[in-house]
Amino acid sequence: MSAPQTNPGDVVGWPLLKIRYRTDADKIAALLPPGIEANDGTNVYLNVYNYPVPDVPEYGILTMVDASYQGVDGLYTLGYGIDQESAIFVSRDMNGQPKYPCDVTYYRLGDRVTARCTHQGYTFLEFEGQVTGPSAELPDNYEENEWWVKVSRAVGGAEKSYDFPPHVVRVKSTYGTAWREDVEGKLTLRPSPWDPIHDLLPMRELVSAQLDTPTFLGRDITLEGKLDPEAFWPFSDTIGGSRWLGQNGAPPRGA
Length: 255
Hints:
Blueprint: E1 16-22, H1 25-31, E2 43-52, E3 57-69, E4 72-82, H2 88-95, E5 99-101, E6 103-109, E7 112-119, E8 122-134, E9 142-153, E10 162-189, H3 197-200, E11 205-226, H4 229-232
Parallel strand pairs: 4-5, 4-9
Antiparallel strand pairs: 1-2, 1-11, 2-3, 3-4, 6-7, 7-8, 8-10, 9-10, 10-11
């Protein structure tokens, strides 16, 4: 199998920079709303990407953690920080996809890979790495499940009231692997009240970094079961469009 080829300057076919690091199990559990459960995994997944949505480049940073729902292992999504406004609100309103505005720098020059993510003036993530060569194994077709939450609090803000109570949204995607390269690098997480990954999901070990060019074989977004609305109430206040816990849509007071 050979590396993919694209037209010079084409934004289609950019690989994802997929970073995985290990954190503490209790840190993940604290971020999961009741009904979405921690499993044996203690990983944080960061995907930095450039992909046309729908027909213009979208630079983004996707943050997920290991989690299960009704016995199905998957990834609970804390946020999609993206650099184009047009896709933020429709995605959250329609599907519960936690998108929010973020400035993302991502590029490869030769074998050097650089990524940087900034939100509200805080650069909360930086990565610098060097491509070391093709990955030893290219996985066969695989399935991945993301868990989102679609919810709407009641107009007027009545306590523990909803116009649409919290439901889990399952995003079932099937991928192949066109090409994958390993990257040796340094991930730096910086404190930020808007993207508190440094404090709430501290890095204990950088597990892997790869440039991954997937083959998109299928994606189904479906409304799954309900979450307990009363137990979910503390999780209904989030920072911006993400699922980071906040107060009244802003970072926690005192941050």
